[in-house]
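Side project, low priority. Logging it here so it doesn't get lost.
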Amino acid sequence: MQYNEDMSSPVNKTTTAPPLEGTVFDLAVQDVQRRLAVLGYELGDEVDKGLYGEKTLAAISAFKASTQLPEGELLDQATWIALVDASLTMGERSLYLHRPYFQGRDVVMLQGALSSLGFSLAVDGIFDATTECAVRDFQASMGLPDKGIVGEETFVALQRLRHAWEGKAGVRLEGRSCVPARDPEVLKAQSVCVFGVTEMTRSVAERVSNLAHATCEGAKVMSASSLTRPPAKGAWVVGLTEADVIGDIKFAEGIKTALGAGLAACSEDECRIELKLASRNTEYPQVLWEQYAAATILDALCDELVKRG
C-alpha cells in the first residue's frame, strides 16, 4: 500500500520498531499494538502491560506475511506505513483527491458507505477522481460545500446516516454514470500556469496543479514551480496573492467573478490574471483551507474553459 504524506493526518509516523523485546515501552508501542488489534491480531496481555513481546512480534511477522513486504519481525518504515494504511478508521484523517492517491482502510470505509447510500463508485481503497465525484454528489445532497474534501462536516453527515449504510451492500444504480467533477478533455484543452507570491499562495498553486493531474494525467494546468521554461504563448497565467482577511462562504463566488473579469481583459497573445486569496478560514484547518482554495480555483478555471468551448 501507499501512504500519503498529508499534513492534516494525525498519525504518528514512527519509522522503526522499538528495539527491546519484552520491555515496557512508550506510547509508540501502544499505537502499533492498537493498529494490530484493529486488524484482528491476538496480543494477549501485552497491550495492557505495554510489553513489546513475543505476541507483538508474531503479529508483526504475520501482518508482513499478509502483504508483499519482506518476511520477518522488524517493524521498519515500510511496514509501519502499510500498517497505518491498513488500520486507519474513517475520520482519523481528512481525505481529498491528491497525487499520490490516498489509500487505506478508511478510504474503503468511506467508499463502502457512499456505495451503500447509492453513489456509484468502486470500493477499492483508492481515493481517485471517481471517488471524489461520489463525495461531491453526497455533499451536494446534504447541502455541504461540494469540493470533494472529506473533513469533519462530511464525516459527521456520514455518521448521522450510519444506520442507512453500516453492514449493507453497495448499490450500483442502473444507467447512472458518475461524470467527473472536472472533465478530462477540458483540462487538456488550455495551458494554464498558476503561481503564488507567498508561502501560502505557492502551496495553493501547487495544489491546483496536483488536483488537476490527479483528475487527468494529461492536464495542462501547471504550477510555476514545476515549469522548466516560460509558459507557452497563449497560456493563461494566474497569479495568486494573499489578502490578510478571513475567508467566508462567498469565497467561491468571488474567485469566479475575479477570474471571469480577468479573462475578459485578456488578449489572444497575453493573458495574465490576479486572484486574491484569504489567508485563512476559521472553519477549516489551514491545510484544508488551502486545498479548498485550490479546488475552488480549479473548478472556476474549468467553468470558464467550458464557456469558451
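Brief comment: Residues 1-25 have pLDDT under 50 and may be disordered.
Revisit when time allows.
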